[in-house]
Design a protein that fits this description.
The chain is of the alpha/beta class and 416 residues long. Helices cover 36% and strands 21% of the residues. The strands form 3 sheets. An 8-stranded mixed sheet has the order 2-1-3-4-5-6-7-8, sandwiched between helices. Strands 9-10-14-11-12-13 form a 6-stranded mixed sheet, sandwiched between helices. A two-stranded antiparallel sheet has the order 15-16. β4, α8 and β5 form a beta-alpha-beta unit. α3 crosses α9 and α5 runs parallel beside α7. The two termini are 23 Å apart.
């Protein structure tokens, strides 16, 4: 299905751009761009501004956004889109198609570094959405990311910033866990403090809430009018999502992306999580920028600070590099070990390892394997063995989950 849609891209994008300039010329478009954090940020902004709107497109590439634009009428007053690209040369056309009045930039990192090469190229490409802004538009920028703040030099639009930085317009003064499923935030906006009790965990999840507050405040809406909607926002599946197991342990499902930056953020969040013990199930790094060996050693050092025990899913060489970093400060090598690549065996190891009161972080690029392992621990039947899996949906939503699905050559087959 996706390949069919992409084949029509040369027609869909220009048609959608024309539809935007004519039929949807009065529609306000907010675009969310960045390397990480786009999905939850989009959900937070939609919760604050358009809670009753229809669901956003299943995918955030220009083809799917084009289809959504073409299916919209002039009665639509607001569109909020996640704008995702995977290579240089795509964002300028994307920006010209959606013509945003507001752009929110979450972060610049090493996602797709094989295509972009370095962070400067990445920020320059993503900045095309900011450059598209009219001087009367609005750029909402992450004050804690210097590459994002650089984008302020690329536009004449009004700039509003958010983050923990002391100069941020919408500034987080305090973020702390209140229990295993919620957090407390204190936010300073225009000299006034606001208190929020949210259902998101990990300080990295402060950013979507801050971005949503920044958008609404910049529009002139009082922050207290949207705080209830932000407090009701539930975790995005696979993004710092806590799940209580029957055993009394808690899974923290965060297996969507596995760059070194996102690994660090997840481990920092684990470090502040209230638990008897903190375990981390880590997969291999995704698209490493720079020396891969050094990256795994750095990951080991990060993990040593945050986790009582590490279970690694990946190649033996990567495990050894990870162990080198993990033990550099004298940690016991037995606190880090490999995890079987067979689902049933991995499940047994984890059930033997976990105790009531443990927090167990799942983070890695073997996203479908980790998702299936999470589901088995929760008690769901998973028979699919397709690896790698190219389906762009979560295993919990996949119709093949309960079927015996195995690889066969370039394709796959089901046995009922």
């Amino acid at each position: 299905m996706m390949s069919i849609i992409y084949s029509f891209r040369p027609v869909l994008v220009p048609l959608a751009a024309l539809h935007r300039k004519t039929t949807l010329r009065s529609t306000r478009v907010t675009a969310i761009v960045g390397s990480f954090g786009k999905t939850t940020t989009t959900r937070a902004i939609r919760a604050a501004l358009t809670p009753a709107a229809r669901p956003h497109p299943a995918h955030s590439t220009d083809c799917y956004i084009a289809l959504d634009l073409l299916s919209s009428t002039g009665q639509c007053r607001q569109k909020i889109y996640t704008a995702a690209i995977d290579r240089p040369g795509r964002m300028a056309g994307f920006a010209s198609m959606v013509q945003p009045q507001e752009v929110v930039v979450t972060s610049i990192g090493s996602a797709h570094c094989r295509s972009f090469g370095n962070l400067e190229t990445t920020r320059d490409e993503k900045a095309w959405m900011v450059r598209e802004l009219h001087p009367s538009g609005l750029a909402i920028l992450n004050a804690d990311d210097p590459h994002v703040m650089w984008m302020g030099s690329q536009t004449q639009a009004r700039i509003v910033t958010f983050g923990f930085d002391g100069c941020a317009d919408v500034r987080c003064l305090l973020f702390e866990a209140t229990d295993q499923f919620s957090s407390h935030m204190e936010v300073l906006i225009d000299g006034e403090k606001f208190q929020l009790d949210i259902q998101l965990i990990g300080a990295v999840m402060a950013y979507p809430v801050l971005a949503a507050l920044a958008v609404t405040w910049a529009r002139g809406l009082p922050p207290e009018s949207v705080i209830p909607a932000l407090e009701a926002l539930t975790p995005t599946p696979g993004r710092m999502q806590p799940v209580l197991l029957a055993s009394g342990a808690i899974l923290i499902c965060d297996e969507q992306k596995a760059s070194l930056e996102m690994m660090e953020k997840a481990l920092e969040s684990l470090d502040g999580f209230p638990a008897e013990r903190r375990l981390a199930v880590l997969g291999e790094l995704q698209q490493v920028m720079g020396d891969e060996n050094d990256a795994y050693r750095q990951l080991g050092i990060m993990a040593e600070k945050s986790a009582d025990k590490i279970l690694f899913l990946g190649k033996l060489g990567a495990l050894q590099l990870l162990r080198d970093g993990f033990t550099v400060r004298g940690r016991d090598p037995s606190d880090i070990s490999g995890l079987p690549t067979n689902l049933a065996e991995a499940e047994l190891v984890l059930r033997d390892t976990m105790r009531p009161g443990d927090a167990v972080l799942f983070k890695g690029r073997q996203s479908h394997f980790l998702q299936r392992l999470e589901l088995r621990l929760i008690g769901k039947t998973t028979k699919c063995e397709l690896e790698p899996c190219n389906f762009l949906l979560r295993c919990s939503n996949c119709p093949s989950l309960g079927k015996h699905t195995r690889q066969r050559g370039a394709g796959f087959f089901h046995s009922l």
